[in-house]
Amino acid sequence: MVMLKAKAGELVERFIEEAISAGLTWDEVVAVFGLASKALAQAAVAAGEGAEADCVAHARKRLEEAFAQDVRVVMADGPETEFEAESGDNALLATAHRRHAYKH
What we know:
A three-stranded antiparallel β-sheet has the order 1-3-2, with helices on one face. It has helices at residues 2-22, 26-46, 52-67, 82-86, and strands at residues 72-76, 91-94, 99-103. The longest helix is centred in the first third of the chain and has 21 residues, at 2-22. The protein is an alpha+beta fold. α2 (26-46) packs antiparallel against α3.
């Protein structure tokens, strides 16, 4: 589970960095994430993982499970936030002027 959280953190970090770089609003990013989830479900169907309805339902269920997790977000100027200092297993999202940290 620790490895999964680390990998998930890295993917979330890259996804958010790309979204920030693209200049998308948070609302647009949420919509893109939903589209990506549906595309993954369709890729699962193509890979023989199940019927389309089942894969889409599973993707929706996993999105809801993930959304239900506690997440803490900290945005601060500077190289290190108080949150980073107290938690070594968080994901850091670096941009040109800010560092964002979240923990799940």
